Amino acid sequence: SYGSVFTHAKAGMENVDRERVARVVYDATVGTPHHENETRKERATSKRIAAMKAKGQGMTKTEWETFGRRADERARAMERTRSGARKWLVVDMDGFYAACEELYDPALKSVPVGVAAGPSSVLTTANYVARKYGVRAAMPGFIAKKLCPDLVFVKPDFKKYVKASNESRGVFAQYNPDYIAGSLDEAYIEVTEYCEKHDTTMEAIAEEIRSKVKEATGGLTCSVGGGCSRRLAKVCSDFNKPNGQYILGTTRDDILKFLRDLPVRKMYGIGKTLERILNEFDIKTCGDLLAKRATMLALFTPKAFDFLLGIALGIGTECHPRETPEGSGGRKGVSKSETFKATADKAYLDAKMTELATEVALECQRLNLKGRMVAVKLKRSTFDVIQRQTTLAGPTNDVKTIVNSALRLMRNENSIGANMTLRLVGA
DNA sequence: ACGTGAAGGACCC
DNA sequence: AACCAGGGTCCTTCATGT
Fold this sequence. Notes:
Elements: H1 4-7, H2 18-29, H3 33-57, H4 61-79, E1 88-93, H5 96-104, E2 113-116, E3 123-126, H6 128-131, H7 141-147, E4 152-154, H8 158-175, E5 180-183, E6 186-190, H9 192-198, H10 202-217, E7 222-227, H11 230-237, E8 245-247, H12 252-260, H13 272-280, H14 286-291, H15 293-299, H16 302-313, E9 337-343, H17 346-367, E10 371-380, E11 385-396, H18 399-416, E12 422-426
Parallel strand pairs: 2-4, 7-8
Antiparallel strand pairs: 1-6, 1-7, 2-3, 5-6, 9-12, 10-11, 10-12
Helix pairs in contact: 2-7, 4-15, 5-8, 8-10, 17-18
The chain binds a DNA duplex through α3, α7, α13, α16 and β9.
Protein backbone atom coordinates (compact mmCIF):
# COMPACT_ATOMS: atom_id res chain seq x y z
CA SER A 1 0.00 0.00 0.00
CA TYR A 2 3.03 2.29 0.09
CA GLY A 3 2.57 5.25 -2.21
CA SER A 4 -1.19 5.42 -1.77
CA VAL A 5 -0.67 8.98 -0.54
CA PHE A 6 0.25 9.88 -4.09
CA THR A 7 -2.35 7.90 -5.98
CA HIS A 8 -5.58 8.78 -4.22
CA ALA A 9 -7.83 11.15 -6.12
CA LYS A 10 -7.02 14.83 -6.10
CA ALA A 11 -8.48 17.52 -8.31
CA GLY A 12 -6.99 17.44 -11.81
CA MET A 13 -5.76 13.87 -11.42
CA GLU A 14 -8.81 11.91 -12.57
CA ASN A 15 -7.14 10.50 -15.69
CA VAL A 16 -3.77 9.75 -14.15
CA ASP A 17 -2.33 6.28 -14.71
CA ARG A 18 -2.28 5.32 -11.05
CA GLU A 19 -0.56 2.02 -11.69
CA ARG A 20 2.32 3.82 -13.33
CA VAL A 21 2.57 6.37 -10.52
CA ALA A 22 2.61 3.63 -7.91
CA ARG A 23 5.32 1.74 -9.81
CA VAL A 24 7.53 4.79 -10.36
CA VAL A 25 7.20 5.81 -6.71
CA TYR A 26 8.02 2.31 -5.55
CA ASP A 27 11.00 1.86 -7.86
CA ALA A 28 12.41 5.22 -6.87
CA THR A 29 12.14 4.65 -3.15
CA VAL A 30 12.33 0.96 -2.31
CA GLY A 31 15.18 0.30 0.09
CA THR A 32 15.67 3.93 1.11
CA PRO A 33 15.60 4.88 4.80
CA HIS A 34 12.40 6.79 4.21
CA HIS A 35 10.74 3.76 2.72
CA GLU A 36 11.97 1.60 5.59
CA ASN A 37 10.44 4.05 8.03
CA GLU A 38 7.13 4.04 6.17
CA THR A 39 7.16 0.25 6.27
CA ARG A 40 7.77 0.36 10.01
CA LYS A 41 4.76 2.62 10.49
CA GLU A 42 2.63 0.39 8.29
CA ARG A 43 3.56 -2.61 10.40
CA ALA A 44 2.50 -0.70 13.50
CA THR A 45 -0.85 0.00 11.85
CA SER A 46 -1.19 -3.66 10.91
CA LYS A 47 -0.66 -4.56 14.54
CA ARG A 48 -3.30 -2.06 15.59
CA ILE A 49 -5.75 -3.52 13.07
CA ALA A 50 -5.02 -7.06 14.28
CA ALA A 51 -5.70 -6.01 17.87
CA MET A 52 -8.99 -4.41 16.87
CA LYS A 53 -10.08 -7.50 14.94
CA ALA A 54 -9.14 -9.76 17.84
CA LYS A 55 -11.19 -7.60 20.18
CA GLY A 56 -14.14 -7.80 17.81
CA GLN A 57 -13.90 -11.54 17.40
CA GLY A 58 -13.61 -12.03 21.14
CA MET A 59 -16.95 -10.40 21.79
CA THR A 60 -20.11 -12.39 22.33
CA LYS A 61 -23.33 -11.99 20.41
CA THR A 62 -24.91 -10.33 23.42
CA GLU A 63 -22.07 -7.82 23.68
CA TRP A 64 -22.46 -6.96 20.00
CA GLU A 65 -26.17 -6.42 20.46
CA THR A 66 -25.43 -4.06 23.34
CA PHE A 67 -22.97 -2.09 21.21
CA GLY A 68 -25.60 -1.99 18.48
CA ARG A 69 -28.21 -0.53 20.82
CA ARG A 70 -25.78 1.96 22.34
CA ALA A 71 -24.55 3.08 18.91
CA ASP A 72 -28.14 3.62 17.81
CA GLU A 73 -28.78 5.62 20.94
CA ARG A 74 -25.70 7.79 20.29
CA ALA A 75 -26.87 8.35 16.72
CA ARG A 76 -30.33 9.38 17.94
CA ALA A 77 -28.80 11.71 20.50
CA MET A 78 -26.63 13.29 17.82
CA GLU A 79 -29.64 13.58 15.52
CA ARG A 80 -31.34 15.69 18.16
CA THR A 81 -28.56 18.27 17.74
CA ARG A 82 -28.96 18.44 13.97
CA SER A 83 -29.63 21.90 12.63
CA GLY A 84 -29.58 23.13 9.06
CA ALA A 85 -29.85 26.74 10.17
CA ARG A 86 -26.32 27.90 9.48
CA LYS A 87 -24.80 28.67 6.11
CA TRP A 88 -21.06 28.13 5.64
CA LEU A 89 -18.90 28.68 2.60
CA VAL A 90 -15.37 27.37 2.19
CA VAL A 91 -13.16 29.08 -0.36
CA ASP A 92 -10.12 27.20 -1.56
CA MET A 93 -7.71 28.73 -4.06
CA ASP A 94 -6.82 26.48 -7.00
CA GLY A 95 -3.19 25.27 -7.02
CA PHE A 96 -2.44 28.40 -5.09
CA TYR A 97 1.36 28.78 -5.00
CA ALA A 98 1.72 27.56 -8.58
CA ALA A 99 -1.10 29.83 -9.75
CA CYS A 100 0.57 32.82 -8.08
CA GLU A 101 3.81 32.03 -9.88
CA GLU A 102 1.93 31.81 -13.20
CA LEU A 103 0.55 35.25 -12.56
CA TYR A 104 4.08 36.68 -12.58
CA ASP A 105 5.33 34.45 -15.38
CA PRO A 106 2.46 33.48 -17.72
CA ALA A 107 4.78 31.21 -19.72
CA LEU A 108 4.56 28.78 -16.80
CA LYS A 109 0.87 28.18 -17.52
CA SER A 110 1.59 25.82 -20.42
CA VAL A 111 4.36 23.80 -18.78
CA PRO A 112 4.30 21.41 -15.82
CA VAL A 113 5.31 23.32 -12.70
CA GLY A 114 6.21 22.15 -9.22
CA VAL A 115 6.76 24.65 -6.42
CA ALA A 116 9.53 23.36 -4.14
CA ALA A 117 12.45 24.75 -2.15
CA GLY A 118 14.84 22.58 -4.17
CA PRO A 119 14.64 19.78 -6.74
CA SER A 120 14.96 17.13 -4.04
CA SER A 121 12.66 18.60 -1.41
CA VAL A 122 8.92 18.02 -1.42
CA LEU A 123 6.52 19.94 -3.62
CA THR A 124 4.21 22.36 -1.89
CA THR A 125 2.07 22.60 -5.03
CA ALA A 126 1.87 21.30 -8.58
CA ASN A 127 0.04 23.13 -11.34
CA TYR A 128 -2.69 21.36 -13.29
CA VAL A 129 -0.39 20.56 -16.24
CA ALA A 130 1.93 18.68 -13.85
CA ARG A 131 -0.97 16.88 -12.16
CA LYS A 132 -1.76 15.08 -15.41
CA TYR A 133 1.50 13.20 -14.88
CA GLY A 134 0.59 12.29 -11.32
CA VAL A 135 2.79 15.02 -9.87
CA ARG A 136 1.25 16.61 -6.80
CA ALA A 137 1.78 18.46 -3.54
CA ALA A 138 3.72 16.56 -0.86
CA MET A 139 5.62 14.57 -3.48
CA PRO A 140 9.43 14.64 -3.32
CA GLY A 141 10.96 16.52 -6.22
CA PHE A 142 13.10 13.65 -7.44
CA ILE A 143 10.06 11.40 -7.81
CA ALA A 144 8.10 14.16 -9.53
CA LYS A 145 10.99 14.51 -11.97
CA LYS A 146 10.80 10.79 -12.75
CA LEU A 147 7.07 11.01 -13.43
CA CYS A 148 7.49 14.15 -15.47
CA PRO A 149 11.04 14.77 -16.73
CA ASP A 150 10.08 18.19 -18.13
CA LEU A 151 8.85 19.41 -14.77
CA VAL A 152 9.91 22.99 -14.06
CA PHE A 153 10.85 23.68 -10.45
CA VAL A 154 10.00 27.06 -8.98
CA LYS A 155 11.16 28.15 -5.55
CA PRO A 156 8.39 29.33 -3.22
CA ASP A 157 8.15 33.08 -2.84
CA PHE A 158 5.86 33.80 0.09
CA LYS A 159 5.64 37.51 -0.57
CA LYS A 160 3.60 36.73 -3.68
CA TYR A 161 1.33 34.36 -1.78
CA VAL A 162 0.75 36.71 1.14
CA LYS A 163 -0.15 39.51 -1.27
CA ALA A 164 -2.66 37.37 -3.18
CA SER A 165 -3.99 35.98 0.08
CA ASN A 166 -4.66 39.46 1.44
CA GLU A 167 -6.40 40.43 -1.78
CA SER A 168 -8.71 37.42 -1.55
CA ARG A 169 -9.34 38.04 2.15
CA GLY A 170 -10.54 41.53 1.32
CA VAL A 171 -13.33 39.83 -0.62
CA PHE A 172 -14.20 37.39 2.17
CA ALA A 173 -14.46 40.22 4.69
CA GLN A 174 -17.24 41.81 2.64
CA TYR A 175 -19.44 38.86 3.56
CA ASN A 176 -18.23 38.33 7.09
CA PRO A 177 -15.24 40.09 8.66
CA ASP A 178 -15.11 37.24 11.16
CA TYR A 179 -14.14 34.67 8.50
CA ILE A 180 -11.71 31.94 9.56
CA ALA A 181 -8.42 31.83 7.66
CA GLY A 182 -7.54 28.14 7.40
CA SER A 183 -4.27 28.97 5.67
CA LEU A 184 -3.06 31.46 3.05
CA ASP A 185 -5.25 29.84 0.42
CA GLU A 186 -8.31 28.71 2.33
CA ALA A 187 -11.06 30.39 4.34
CA TYR A 188 -14.26 29.47 6.17
CA ILE A 189 -16.95 32.13 5.91
CA GLU A 190 -20.27 32.00 7.69
CA VAL A 191 -22.85 33.78 5.54
CA THR A 192 -26.01 33.03 7.54
CA GLU A 193 -26.56 36.65 8.48
CA TYR A 194 -25.47 37.99 5.13
CA CYS A 195 -28.02 35.80 3.35
CA GLU A 196 -30.70 36.94 5.74
CA LYS A 197 -29.87 40.62 5.51
CA HIS A 198 -29.43 40.73 1.74
CA ASP A 199 -32.04 38.14 0.88
CA THR A 200 -29.59 36.04 -1.09
CA THR A 201 -28.31 32.47 -1.30
CA MET A 202 -25.05 30.58 -0.85
CA GLU A 203 -25.05 29.82 -4.58
CA ALA A 204 -25.21 33.49 -5.49
CA ILE A 205 -22.56 34.49 -2.97
CA ALA A 206 -20.26 31.72 -4.15
CA GLU A 207 -20.52 33.02 -7.72
CA GLU A 208 -19.82 36.54 -6.51
CA ILE A 209 -16.84 35.52 -4.43
CA ARG A 210 -15.30 33.58 -7.29
CA SER A 211 -15.55 36.48 -9.68
CA LYS A 212 -14.44 39.08 -7.11
CA VAL A 213 -11.44 36.99 -6.04
CA LYS A 214 -10.39 36.62 -9.66
CA GLU A 215 -10.72 40.36 -10.09
CA ALA A 216 -8.93 41.27 -6.86
CA THR A 217 -5.97 38.94 -7.43
CA GLY A 218 -5.54 39.72 -11.09
CA GLY A 219 -6.67 36.33 -12.34
CA LEU A 220 -6.48 33.64 -9.66
CA THR A 221 -9.33 31.18 -9.54
CA CYS A 222 -10.79 29.47 -6.51
CA SER A 223 -13.35 26.81 -5.73
CA VAL A 224 -16.18 27.23 -3.28
CA GLY A 225 -18.16 24.74 -1.25
CA GLY A 226 -21.28 25.46 0.75
CA GLY A 227 -23.36 23.72 3.37
CA CYS A 228 -24.77 24.02 6.86
CA SER A 229 -21.46 23.22 8.61
CA ARG A 230 -17.77 23.86 8.16
CA ARG A 231 -17.17 20.16 7.60
CA LEU A 232 -19.73 19.83 4.81
CA ALA A 233 -18.74 23.10 3.14
CA LYS A 234 -15.13 21.97 3.19
CA VAL A 235 -15.75 18.66 1.47
CA CYS A 236 -17.96 20.43 -1.10
CA SER A 237 -15.19 22.90 -1.95
CA ASP A 238 -13.31 20.00 -3.52
CA PHE A 239 -16.30 18.67 -5.43
CA ASN A 240 -16.04 20.87 -8.53
CA LYS A 241 -12.43 21.90 -8.28
CA PRO A 242 -10.87 23.80 -10.01
CA ASN A 243 -12.77 27.03 -10.62
CA GLY A 244 -16.11 25.58 -9.59
CA GLN A 245 -18.57 25.45 -6.74
CA TYR A 246 -20.95 23.05 -5.09
CA ILE A 247 -23.59 23.96 -2.57
CA LEU A 248 -25.08 21.14 -0.57
CA GLY A 249 -28.69 21.33 0.59
CA THR A 250 -29.25 21.69 4.31
CA THR A 251 -31.92 19.06 4.98
CA ARG A 252 -31.13 15.73 6.59
CA ASP A 253 -32.16 14.02 3.39
CA ASP A 254 -29.86 16.14 1.20
CA ILE A 255 -26.95 15.47 3.51
CA LEU A 256 -27.38 11.72 3.95
CA LYS A 257 -27.86 11.24 0.20
CA PHE A 258 -24.67 13.18 -0.43
CA LEU A 259 -22.70 11.22 2.16
CA ARG A 260 -23.95 7.77 1.26
CA ASP A 261 -21.47 7.17 -1.56
CA LEU A 262 -18.81 9.65 -0.53
CA PRO A 263 -15.44 7.96 0.18
CA VAL A 264 -14.44 8.45 3.82
CA ARG A 265 -11.01 9.64 2.66
CA LYS A 266 -12.59 12.83 1.33
CA MET A 267 -13.45 14.00 4.82
CA TYR A 268 -11.19 16.35 6.71
CA GLY A 269 -9.35 14.38 9.37
CA ILE A 270 -9.41 11.02 7.62
CA GLY A 271 -6.01 10.35 6.11
CA LYS A 272 -4.12 7.42 4.71
CA THR A 273 -3.92 5.47 7.98
CA LEU A 274 -7.50 5.82 9.15
CA GLU A 275 -8.70 5.06 5.64
CA ARG A 276 -6.73 1.83 5.70
CA ILE A 277 -8.11 0.84 9.09
CA LEU A 278 -11.69 1.56 8.05
CA ASN A 279 -11.21 -0.35 4.78
CA GLU A 280 -10.24 -3.39 6.85
CA PHE A 281 -13.73 -3.30 8.31
CA ASP A 282 -15.30 -2.94 4.84
CA ILE A 283 -15.93 0.74 5.31
CA LYS A 284 -15.27 2.70 2.16
CA THR A 285 -17.94 5.40 2.19
CA CYS A 286 -19.57 7.60 4.80
CA GLY A 287 -22.69 5.51 4.23
CA ASP A 288 -20.75 2.40 5.23
CA LEU A 289 -19.56 4.26 8.31
CA LEU A 290 -23.12 4.91 9.40
CA ALA A 291 -24.12 1.31 8.79
CA LYS A 292 -21.18 -0.01 10.82
CA ARG A 293 -21.60 2.31 13.77
CA ALA A 294 -21.78 -0.56 16.25
CA THR A 295 -18.36 -1.77 15.11
CA MET A 296 -16.99 1.75 15.44
CA LEU A 297 -18.33 2.10 18.97
CA ALA A 298 -16.88 -1.25 19.97
CA LEU A 299 -13.43 -0.75 18.52
CA PHE A 300 -12.58 2.94 18.62
CA THR A 301 -12.04 5.30 21.53
CA PRO A 302 -15.05 7.44 22.54
CA LYS A 303 -13.60 10.59 20.94
CA ALA A 304 -12.80 8.78 17.72
CA PHE A 305 -16.30 7.28 17.67
CA ASP A 306 -17.93 10.69 18.08
CA PHE A 307 -15.77 12.07 15.29
CA LEU A 308 -16.67 9.20 12.95
CA LEU A 309 -20.36 9.28 13.80
CA GLY A 310 -20.42 13.03 13.16
CA ILE A 311 -18.96 12.36 9.72
CA ALA A 312 -21.42 9.56 9.00
CA LEU A 313 -24.42 11.72 9.91
CA GLY A 314 -23.07 15.01 8.60
CA ILE A 315 -23.46 16.62 12.01
CA GLY A 316 -20.95 18.82 13.83
CA THR A 317 -18.81 21.93 13.18
CA GLU A 318 -21.90 24.07 12.60
CA CYS A 319 -20.57 26.89 14.71
CA HIS A 320 -17.52 29.12 14.78
CA PRO A 321 -14.77 27.47 16.86
CA ARG A 322 -14.80 30.49 19.14
CA GLU A 323 -18.28 29.49 20.26
CA THR A 324 -16.83 26.34 21.84
CA PRO A 325 -14.63 26.30 24.97
CA GLU A 326 -11.74 24.47 23.26
CA GLY A 327 -11.63 26.75 20.27
CA SER A 328 -11.61 30.01 22.16
CA GLY A 329 -7.89 29.98 22.99
CA GLY A 330 -5.28 31.57 20.79
CA ARG A 331 -2.00 30.35 19.39
CA LYS A 332 -0.76 27.14 21.05
CA GLY A 333 2.85 27.03 19.97
CA VAL A 334 5.68 28.53 17.97
CA SER A 335 8.27 26.36 16.25
CA LYS A 336 11.14 26.35 13.78
CA SER A 337 12.80 23.33 12.24
CA GLU A 338 15.24 22.63 9.45
CA THR A 339 16.33 19.64 7.42
CA PHE A 340 19.95 19.25 6.36
CA LYS A 341 22.38 16.60 5.13
CA ALA A 342 22.39 14.01 7.92
CA THR A 343 25.23 14.52 10.36
CA ALA A 344 26.45 13.48 13.82
CA ASP A 345 28.63 16.59 14.20
CA LYS A 346 27.73 17.87 17.67
CA ALA A 347 29.10 21.34 17.09
CA TYR A 348 26.98 21.69 13.95
CA LEU A 349 23.86 20.38 15.65
CA ASP A 350 24.38 22.65 18.64
CA ALA A 351 24.79 25.66 16.39
CA LYS A 352 21.68 24.75 14.39
CA MET A 353 19.60 24.22 17.50
CA THR A 354 20.83 27.48 19.00
CA GLU A 355 19.91 29.33 15.84
CA LEU A 356 16.41 27.83 15.62
CA ALA A 357 15.63 28.16 19.32
CA THR A 358 16.72 31.79 19.18
CA GLU A 359 14.38 32.42 16.26
CA VAL A 360 11.54 30.82 18.21
CA ALA A 361 12.20 33.04 21.22
CA LEU A 362 12.36 36.16 19.07
CA GLU A 363 9.17 35.18 17.27
CA CYS A 364 7.45 34.72 20.66
CA GLN A 365 8.64 38.19 21.68
CA ARG A 366 7.38 39.65 18.41
CA LEU A 367 3.98 38.00 18.96
CA ASN A 368 4.03 38.96 22.61
CA LEU A 369 3.59 35.33 23.65
CA LYS A 370 5.19 33.30 26.41
CA GLY A 371 5.57 29.54 26.57
CA ARG A 372 5.36 27.18 29.53
CA MET A 373 7.04 24.30 27.78
CA VAL A 374 10.05 23.86 25.50
CA ALA A 375 10.13 20.92 23.09
CA VAL A 376 12.72 19.77 20.61
CA LYS A 377 12.24 17.58 17.60
CA LEU A 378 15.07 15.48 16.26
CA LYS A 379 14.77 13.44 13.10
CA ARG A 380 17.35 10.76 12.63
CA SER A 381 18.87 9.81 9.30
CA THR A 382 16.50 6.82 9.50
CA PHE A 383 13.53 9.22 9.49
CA ASP A 384 12.25 8.27 12.91
CA VAL A 385 11.37 11.26 15.01
CA ILE A 386 12.39 11.85 18.61
CA GLN A 387 10.57 14.50 20.62
CA ARG A 388 11.67 15.70 24.01
CA GLN A 389 9.98 18.31 26.11
CA THR A 390 10.40 20.04 29.42
CA THR A 391 8.08 22.21 31.43
CA LEU A 392 9.55 25.53 32.50
CA ALA A 393 9.31 27.13 35.93
CA GLY A 394 7.04 29.77 34.47
CA PRO A 395 5.95 31.25 31.14
CA THR A 396 8.81 32.83 29.24
CA ASN A 397 10.04 34.08 25.88
CA ASP A 398 13.58 34.72 27.05
CA VAL A 399 16.19 33.71 24.46
CA LYS A 400 18.69 32.28 26.95
CA THR A 401 16.13 30.18 28.80
CA ILE A 402 14.66 28.71 25.62
CA VAL A 403 18.01 28.07 23.91
CA ASN A 404 19.50 26.44 27.02
CA SER A 405 16.46 24.21 27.56
CA ALA A 406 16.50 23.13 23.92
CA LEU A 407 20.22 22.41 23.95
CA ARG A 408 19.93 20.45 27.19
CA LEU A 409 17.11 18.33 25.74
CA MET A 410 19.08 17.58 22.59
CA ARG A 411 22.41 16.90 24.33
CA ASN A 412 20.66 14.55 26.72
CA GLU A 413 19.63 12.35 23.79
CA ASN A 414 22.99 12.67 22.11
CA SER A 415 24.76 11.39 25.20
CA ILE A 416 22.45 8.37 25.47
CA GLY A 417 22.51 7.11 21.90
CA ALA A 418 26.09 7.28 20.67
CA ASN A 419 26.52 8.62 17.15
CA MET A 420 23.06 10.01 16.67
CA THR A 421 22.96 11.04 13.05
CA LEU A 422 20.31 13.68 12.52
CA ARG A 423 18.75 15.12 9.38
CA LEU A 424 16.52 17.63 11.12
CA VAL A 425 16.41 19.56 14.34
CA GLY A 426 13.74 21.91 15.57
CA ALA A 427 12.55 23.76 18.67
C1' DA B 1 -10.62 7.66 39.88
C1' DC B 2 -8.56 11.47 38.00
C1' DG B 3 -5.43 15.40 36.70
C1' DT B 4 -0.89 16.17 34.56
C1' DG B 5 3.39 15.70 32.01
C1' DA B 6 5.83 13.34 28.42
C1' DA B 7 6.35 10.90 24.08
C1' DG B 8 4.60 9.46 19.75
C1' DG B 9 1.61 9.89 15.77
C1' DA B 10 -2.06 11.23 12.49
C1' DC B 11 -3.54 14.80 9.95
C1' DC B 12 -4.00 19.39 7.57
C1' DC B 13 -2.17 22.95 4.17
C1' DA C 1 24.48 8.45 -6.89
C1' DA C 2 21.31 10.14 -4.13
C1' DC C 3 17.73 12.87 -3.33
C1' DC C 4 10.93 12.95 1.03
C1' DA C 5 9.37 20.39 3.93
C1' DG C 6 7.93 23.23 7.68
C1' DG C 7 4.22 25.36 9.97
C1' DG C 8 0.58 23.99 12.88
C1' DT C 9 -3.54 21.19 15.77
C1' DC C 10 -5.34 17.40 18.11
C1' DC C 11 -5.53 12.72 20.10
C1' DT C 12 -3.77 8.54 22.49
C1' DT C 13 -1.05 6.07 25.62
C1' DC C 14 1.66 5.58 29.52
C1' DA C 15 3.74 6.84 33.94
C1' DT C 16 3.01 9.15 37.95
C1' DG C 17 1.14 11.56 41.92
C1' DT C 18 -2.86 12.66 44.78
